[in-house]
Amino acid sequence: MADKEQVKATILEKMNAAKKPALYLKDMHKWFEDAKPREIKNAANELVKESKLMFWSSGSSTMYALPERAKDEDKRGV
Question: Which of 9, 10, 28, 51 is the most interior residue, by most CB within 10 Å?
């Protein structure tokens, strides 16, 4: 079992460095070798509850995004 706080910190760090403003949960799985998919999902959902991440929807898919990056993309019409 991975340390939840470490998983959350890694998610935020990698989301800030990602080229895309929004990522699927499956994209986050690539960042961890020792964490189970459920642990990653729970950590990401906690970050949403803490307003550090947000859900972003394209209409057919739901992704995770940093609030400031998602708003920038919405303004640009991307």
Answer: 28
Cα separation, 15 vs 54, in Å, equals: 12
Residues 6+ apart with CB under 8 A from 64: 15, 22, 23, 24, 25, 28, 44, 47, 48, 53, 54, 55, 56
What's this model's pTM, rounded to 2 decimal places?
0.83
CATH code for position 68: 1.10.10.10
Render pLDDT for 27-58 as a digit per residue (tens, 0 to 9): 999 999 888 999 999 999 999 999 999 998 87
Q: Domain range for residue 50?
A: 4-76
Query: What angle do helix axes 37-49 and 4-17 make, rounded to 10 degrees?
Result: 70
